Amino acid sequence: MSNTPVSNTPEPGSVESLGMPGVALVGGVSHSDRLIDSDAIRRRRTAAVALAEGLRDLIEDTVCTEVPAEAIDEAARMVAEVRASLAGTRRSRAEMPLVDDPENGLRLYNPAYGQGNPIAPPLVFTTTETGVRATCTVGLAYEGPPMFCHGGVSAMLLDQVLGQTVAAANHAGVTVDLTVKYRRPVPLQVPLVLTGRVLGEDPNSGSRRFFAEATLATESDPEVHLVVATGSFAMLRPDQLARMFEGIVRPSRVRPDLARD
């Protein structure tokens, strides 16, 4: 018997390293296991995350820079060249990204937690005994009032936390109602922590609607809630899901070559 220790570190580009394993999200479209776990897909995810990280920094540089106009002109020219390198093959609105595995909580281009989306902070989730916890740092690209986060961005992040909370409790659903209370401004460039918990079930919904609460605070002062949100989430029936996501094209039908060994 081998005495080599088994590593629990997720493989780069795997669902475990990028998504929320075991958390099924509404609208999941099944992929073949061979496609999800193929070396080509893991490599593609790793490349997409690296690209997004660079672009995320570039976005922040763009809104922070005070260099001369000539330098900005040159940067714009180089960005145009980079865009040309990505323009060869594009997916349509109805095509699922090759890198996604929504049934296991992986939407790589989600604008709140997708590590492959340069406009995502991104939120990094962990599950807790009472719900979920997420961390992120919001940069100047999300500035509303000077020095503080735009209120709409706070609402988006909290809505994602609420949705992830009900999904982690096996009640994944769509947002029906969202109430956001702004108590104090949210500082930029400061580590934030968001927590979510399920409040209960709507007794009149036939076990189809659940309520949740999420809070946003700084990591240095987590007990002072800057923004608090409550929401209700409706679990859709299979026929409702089918109608809502009718016409989605699965990646294996778009690029069958990536599903091969």
From TrEMBL:
Domain Thioesterase: 148-199
GO molecular function, one term: hydrolase activity
Main location: membrane
Nucleus listed as a keyword: no
Broad EC category: hydrolase
Catalysed transformations (reactions): decanoyl-CoA + H2O = decanoate + CoA + H(+); dodecanoyl-CoA + H2O = dodecanoate + CoA + H(+); octanoyl-CoA + H2O = octanoate + CoA + H(+); (9Z)-octadecenoyl-CoA + H2O = (9Z)-octadecenoate + CoA + H(+)
InterPro entries the record matches: HotDog_dom_sf (IPR029069), THEM4/THEM5_acyl-CoA_thioest (IPR052365), Thioestr_dom (IPR006683)
Cellular location(s): Cell projection, Ruffle membrane; Cytoplasm; Membrane
EC code(s) of this entry: 3.1.2.2
UniProt keyword annotations, A-Z: Apoptosis, Cell membrane, Cell projection, Cytoplasm, Fatty acid metabolism, Hydrolase, Lipid metabolism, Membrane, Transit peptide
One Pfam family, short name: 4HBT
Family that this chain belongs to: Belongs to the THEM4/THEM5 thioesterase family.
PANTHER family, per the entry: ACYL-COENZYME A THIOESTERASE THEM4
Protein name, as recorded: Acyl-coenzyme A thioesterase THEM4
Species, as recorded: Rhodococcus chondri
Upper taxonomic lineage: Bacteria, Bacillati, Actinomycetota, Actinomycetes, Mycobacteriales
